[in-house]
Prior knowledge:
Seed storage protein. Keywords: Disulfide bond, Secreted, Signal. It is found in: Secreted. The chain is mostly helical. It folds into two domains: about 1-35; about 35-150, Plant lipid-transfer and hydrophobic proteins (Hydrophobic Seed Protein, Orthogonal Bundle), CATH 1.10.110. Helix content is about 50%, strand content about 5%. The chain has helices spanning about 1-30, 55-65, 70-80, 90-105, 120-130, 130-135; strands at about 115, 120. The chain has a two-stranded antiparallel sheet. A hairpin with a 2-residue loop joins strand 1 and strand 2. Helix 2 crosses helix 3.
Amino acid sequence: MASNKLVFAVLLLIVASVLAATTTMADHHQGQVVYTPGPLCQPGMGYPMYPLPRCRALVKRQCVGGAVDEQVRRDCCRQLAAVNDGWCRCEALNHMLGGMYKELGAAEDGHPMAEVFHGCRRGDMERAAASLPAFCNVDIPNGIGGVCYWLGYPRTPRTGH
């Protein structure tokens, strides 16, 4: 019985957090409700064409459960923070994942349990990439707790657009 109350309390807290974040986003943009990155969040405009090379290495290490070198972590966090527009950081990570899939010979879309490379499933790679803003303590105004939670959800092919 107590565990049911705990689960309910946690779910209620999550719903309240989502509602508060949505309200904050709407207020932040002076009457404009903006939920997605703008048209300037594209490769070569809002972030480099080959974004976050050190984050690619970090995501691969995290995906297989390996230790992350401190220099790689610092370099990745510096590259992510260098994406000037916080609204573009998740788009840059999305584009980075698309590039990684191509480099590794994986399909653009696939089942979360499918291996991208030995010991690394697609879902694990996407969660590692999605959590980088929180890991690096950089702001993303459109994520909850610093996590680009929508990276694992299909919306458009991973082209960075």
